Amino acid sequence: MTAASPCPSGVPAAGTSLVLRGREVGRGGDGVLRPVVMAIVNRTTDSFYAPARRPDDGAALDAAHQAWADGAQILDVGGVRAGVGPEVDEAEEIGRVAPFVARLREELPDLLVSVDTWRSGVAREVVAAGADLVNDTWAGHDPALVEVAGEAGVGVVCSHTGGAVPRTDPYRVEYPPGTGAGRGADPRDGVLDDVVATLRAAAARAVACGVPPRSVLVDPTHDFGKNTWQSLHLLRRTAALAGLGYPLLMALSRKDFVGETLGLAPDERLEGTLAATALAAWQGATVFRAHDVVATRRVLDLVAVVRDEAPPHAAARGLA
To answer: How confident is the model over 100-115, as a mean pLDDT?
Structure first.
């Protein structure tokens, strides 16, 4: 799963694999490299998907252990709801996540830990507590955050919000028509052009700040600064995003673009999420932020086999 990996005729190019603290994430004991599941634990009471809310330490630790047992290799810990909600200041956010990260390091030393924050002060504290990755969902709103990651040599997620600022919802979002350069003219590619340019620049800055290139995840950030049509188009164009040459994160799980497409509430969006996951994995995305670890792991394993990147678990039918 590297940018240069060969693939069968008709199969999109493989994406770039993720390396955190010198470890290639997703490489199993059999030597096969598979897509990575990033599980979610929110230390909040108001996240949009209620089952992910784990403000209690015990419940949050139990969820982390279960995610690890179910096949997640990264746990993404959030201290503040992404969308509109009650104010959470920096001190409170640190209190919600930094001690928890330290506990995770003690209890699950092989589980890689990500923290979802846009604040450099929070990033500094969680890195000191042992976090391996800083998930900057709000596209460099605090420009010092990537410097914290670079100084520590940990990973960072570069995201795209179309200029939206933290904890706001999109409103009448528009992008100029796409140029179609190298892809064939499609006016809907305006959002893709903006995402590609933004992520390329953010990733280059992260590398300049000291983050190893394969520890820089790029995320088109579906729903953030986008309407449902735009999020769907970015899913359709996943291969172009994987072509940036950095590990590609897809945070698709139970999001509004899935719900609006199917007319479903968050607790009914699993099948739509898994369909989107399969499409993105087929086109070279390598890391998937997911509420439903077991289901996501199974989908990714099947796609990896169809892409000819891994063998089936068993293949006895018709041979005996």
So the answer is: 98
Collect all residues with Cβ–Cβ distance below 8 Å to 91 and sequence separation of at least 6.
Answer: none
According to DSSP, residue 178 is labeled P
Give φ, ψ of 241 to 5 degrees: -70, -40
Backbone angles phi, psi at 99, to 5 degrees: -60, -35
Token look-up 């955050």 returns 145
* 145 three-class SS: helix
Residue among 27, 30, 47, 73 at smallest CA distance from 288: 73
Written as six digits, the tokens of 47 are 């996240």
Residues whose CB is less than 8 angstroms from the CB of residue 310 and which lie 6 or more positions away in sequence, other chains included: 32, 34, 301, 304
Coil, helix or strand at residue 33: strand
Q: Is the pLDDT of residue 6 over 60?
A: no
Distance CA 217, CA 214 (A): 7
Query: Mind giving me the DSSP string for 93-117?
Result: HHHHHHHHHHHHHHH-TTSEEEEE-
**Token pair listed for 1:** 């799963």
Give the model confidence (pLDDT) of 246-305 as tens digits: 999 999 999 999 999 999 999 999 999 999 999 999 999 999 999 999 999 999 999 999
How far is residue 96 CA from its own chain's centroid? 21
Instruction: Bin 21: left if φ > 0, else alpha if -120 < ψ < 50, else beta.
Output: left
